[in-house]
Amino acid sequence: MGKTKKPATIDFSNLCKNIREKSKFTKSQMADYLRVTIRTYERYETGQVKPGAEPAFRLAGLYVTFSNLNIEFLDTTKG
């Protein structure tokens, strides 16, 4: 029998930091956007805590927004 595959996991610490840097938010602004304390947000970035459903959903919204902006920018530069 074959091995069962583990479900993919998301590295929220890197994801949080990358999205924050791309959006040019400070940690405080990101915490406000996600509606958490700055201490909680810092714990997301260090991997000590994973976001709950609402902050994860809001984070996903930022990810999709910036991904779409990057795609649109690349499409418009092709001439």
Radius of gyration: 15 Å
**Main sheet attributes: strand count, strand direction, barrel closure:** none
- The parts where pLDDT drops under 50 for at least 5 residues are 69-79
Would you count the extended β strands for me?
Answer: 0
Series of H and E elements: HHHH
Distance between the termini: 52 Å
Strand percentage, roughly? under 5%
Average per-residue pLDDT, rounded, comes to 79
Helix proportion = 55-70%
Q: What sort of overall outline do the alpha carbons produce when their principal axes are compared?
A: elongated
Can you count the helices? 4
Structural class: mainly alpha
Defining traits:
single chain; about 80 residues; disordered C terminus
Characterize the structure shown.
Helix 1 packs across helix 3 (38-46) and helix 2 crosses helix 3 (38-46). This protein has 79 residues and is mainly alpha-helical. The relative contact order is 0.14. The longest helix is centred in the C-terminal third of the chain and has 25 residues, at 53-77. The protein is built from 4 helices and no strands. Mean pLDDT is 79; it is low at 69-79.
Present the secondary structure layout.
Blueprint: H1 12-23, H2 27-34, H3 38-46, H4 53-77
Helix pairs in contact: 1-3, 1-4, 2-3
Summarize the structure.
The chain contains four helices and no strands. The protein has 79 residues and is an all-alpha fold.
